[in-house]
Amino acid sequence: MNRxxxxxxxxxxxxxxxxxxxxxxxxxxxxxxxxxFVAIGTAILILIDKLKGYENTQLKRRIRWHIFMTGCITTxxxxxxxxxxxxxxxxxxxxxxxxxLPLFYAAIGIIAVDLVVEKEKENEKGDRPAxxxxxxxxxxxxxxxxxxxxALMTNxxxxxxxxxxxxxxxxxxxxxxxxxxxxxxxxxx
Length: 189
What we know:
By secondary structure, this protein is an all-alpha fold. About 75% of the residues lie in helices and about 0% in strands. The chain starts with a helix and ends in a 6-residue tail after the last helix.
């Protein structure tokens, strides 16, 4: 939640800075065409991932990256258009802000996704029954296996565990299998 508040704060600071530089002319910040480029580009990247066989949980993790990449690509293309048609370059500040609007729209999308994901996490926490702390000390687990076991007990996926502890998903699977074998468990629950 703290990261989300930080993102929102940075986004609002950026918005205020743009408004100050543009003499509070909000019409210069709104460009439906550029926002649609970012949205359509993101949808295309998600569709490609879906066709590749990614599941919805994997897509949720990748959507922020897709939004960011689409914003970067659209920003690059708008910069490129200035090189091709320099006569379109007007006031320097307006030009720079206009050309970086796709990243601004990407930031809006990323924050929206983060808000949805945060709300889903809160709902999941409310739906799960409270678990009593289980002692893993009674099992012959290595320190890393205990770490993985604790992560499993919080319902983290293999990908989330891999990302959190900077190890491969394959390594996580090996640790999970060892935890199962040593504790006598045959599934995550």
